[in-house]
Amino acid sequence: MIKxxxxxxxxxxxxxxxxxxxVELSRRVALEAVAVRCCLSRSKHQCSFVEYKDFxxxxxxxxxLYVVVGITHSENELSIxxxxxNFVEVLDKYFSRVSELDIMFSLDSVHIILxxxxxxxxxxxTNKSRILAPLVAIDKIADG
Length: 144
Known about the structure:
Blueprint: E1 2-9, E2 14-19, H1 25-40, E3 49-52, E4 55-62, E5 65-71, H2 77-95, H3 100-105, H4 107-117, E6 118-119, E7 122-123, H5 128-143
Antiparallel strand pairs: 1-2, 1-5, 3-4, 4-5, 6-7
C-alpha cells in the first residue's frame, strides 16, 4: 500500500504532499525532512529504493524535482517506480513539459491527476487518457 507521495525540489522544499493514512502534522514535517534528506543525499548511481523504519521509500529524480513515494514492505518497488514514471508522463502531457512552477501554480490540477491514479493508497488507473479526462472536461467548461 502507498502511504504517501511527495514532490520536492533539490533544496528540499516540499512542492506536493499527499498522505493516504492519517499522520499528525508534527510527524509529517519530521517524516518529510527525513525522507527528503535520505533521497537527496544519495548519488545517481545508488538504488532508488531505501528502507526506513516501518516503510520503504521509492524515489525518482526529474530535472530539479524528486518524486518520493512511501510504501509498505509488501508493496512491489518496481511497480511504484513505474507509477512515478507514469505520473510524470501524465504531468508532461497535461502541462506540455512540466516544471516546478507548474506544480506550484496548478497544485489543484496535480492533485486531481494524483487522485485519478491513486485512491486509498492503491493504484486504480494508469491509462493517461482516462487520468486526464476530468481535467480536460474541467478545462473545456472553464474555457466556455
